[in-house]
Structures are given as structure tokens and as C-alpha cells.
Amino acid sequence: MDTRPIGVFDSGLGGLTAVRELCRLLPGEEIVYFGDTGRVPYGSRSRETIVKYARQDVAFLRQFDLKAVVIACGTVSTTALEVLTEENALPILGVVAPAARAAARRTRSGRIGLIGTQASIRSGAYEKWIHQERPEAQVFAQACPLFVPLVENGRTRPGDVVIETVAAEYLAPLQAAEVDTLVLGCTHYPLLEAVIRSIMGPGVDLINAGTEGARAVAELLRERGALAPQDAQGGCRYFVSDHVEDFARLASLFLGWDVTGAVGQVDIDLY
Ligand code: DGL
User: Fold this and answer.
1) pLDDT digits (tens, 9 = 90+) for 4-23
2) Which residues contact 256 (CB under 8 A, 6 or more apart)?
3) Does the pLDDT at position 253 exceed 90?
4) How far is 200 from 47, CA to CA, in rounded Å?
5) Could you point out which of 50, 86, 185, 207 has its C-alpha 20 to 30 Å from the C-alpha of 195?
6) Could you tell me the distance, in angstroms and rounded to a whole number, from the CA of residue 70 to the centre of ligand 1?
7) Is the CB of 74 under 6 A from ligand 1?
8) Active site residue 73
9) How many CB atoms lie within 10 A of CB 16?
């Protein structure tokens, strides 16, 4: 048994997709969330910058004596997981391997679509994990650089002409490739699930990297006997590197519970 909190971070709102699933699976756990809203998006930046930001994010979270860190960000998982693992003596888990494995297991036709940030797609990390599990699978990858800024600005709803136009353009090649499974390889993208689903149709299985990552964490903590006691009262504290209000409003909408009052601001340059 381990009552210490789990640290979770992302460049912004996207990691809440992992938080929502962690809270559902493990309601007794304490979670400390950091969203680097002052520097989002990460996905269009160089490897050096992403590694530097990720190191600072982990340094901030490690003030809390954590039992594990979840990189609830596809971009950081594809780009900095190895560095962070080498530098930190606690379990650090990413979202890429769990999401890739889920896609490889669930596809029937072996035709898998992958959407992510430019850095994630460039890394080839999702393909590597998919092919380890299913060597004959065909992966059709598409970077979607405008999705993260649109999500951070709350442009997520079906009927919003901006997000619908952008999504239709990004997803057209994947529709043409007749994929039966689509990996939402950036944790922001499940906030666009309704829009993506309406374009791809009901026959395409959507894999949520945040959810798959959270399931992998729950499994690891269970295996290691490191869960909080059954009767523990869990909870979540949130920190961001920019306006608290915008994050609290969008996070409350997405999570379905009110986080106002539980969000603090951090000067991430101090770490
Ligand atoms: N949620 C991050 C990811 O999963 C977004 C990266 C970004 O800020 O561009 O890749």
C-alpha cells in the first residue's frame, strides 16, 4: 500500500483525459496535475525544447513526494520518456506504448490510422510499438498541428465550423485509407471525440491515449501493491503555468466536476 500521490502532467488540458480515467479506476488516489498552459503547444517545438520543458515539469511535480509520474502527453512520451526515466528514480509512465498496443490488438483489418502532433508523428514511436505487437499492420499517420491550440481555446464542439473544417481536412487521407482503428495519439484529441467520430463514422474504433495510459498505470500500481488503501479518500489538485480561470472553466466542463478553487498557478521557469 502506498498513500503518496500520483503526478500527472501535460502541456495543457489534454492530460485531463488520463486524470478522468484514473479517478474513475482508482477513486482513492491523490493526484497532482500540472498543465503547462503558459507554453502550450509542445508538439511544434524541437526535441531539445520539449526535453527541457518536460524536465522542468517533472522537477515541479517531484516536490510532492510522488509514487509515480504519468506523462499524460503523447509528445513528451514520444520524445522524452527515456531521458526522464534515466534521470528519475521513480516509475515514469508514458501513454504511447499502451495506446499502440491497444490499437494493434483491436484492429480487425490491420489498417490503423494515427493522429498526433508533429513531434509525435516525426518520432515514429507509435509505429514502433504497433509493429512490435503486430508486424503486418499498416499505419497511416497524420500530424494535426492546429488541434491543440483549438482545444485550448475551447473550440471542441460539433457544429463549430472552424474545428469541423480543420478536422475534415486532417482526417480525409485516413478516411481514404479505410482504416478501421484510429489512435488519438495526442491526449488533447479525445476532447474532439464527437467531431472526429462524426467524420470517421461509427465503424472506426477510436483509441484514447490518455485512457490507455491511465489503465496501464492502474495495472502497474496494482501489480506492485502500491495502490492507496480501499477506504482512502482521493482527490486531485491542479497547477498551471498561466491563467487559472480559463483552465478551471474548461477543465470543469471536460471532467464533469467543478475544479474551481483547486487550481494553483506556478512559475515553471523556477524549476
Ligand atoms: N497533449 C499533448 C500531446 O499529447 C499536446 C502536445 C502539444 O502541446 O502540442 O501530444
Assistant:
1) 999 999 999 999 999 999 99
2) 20
3) no
4) 31
5) 50
6) 14
7) yes
8) yes
9) 28
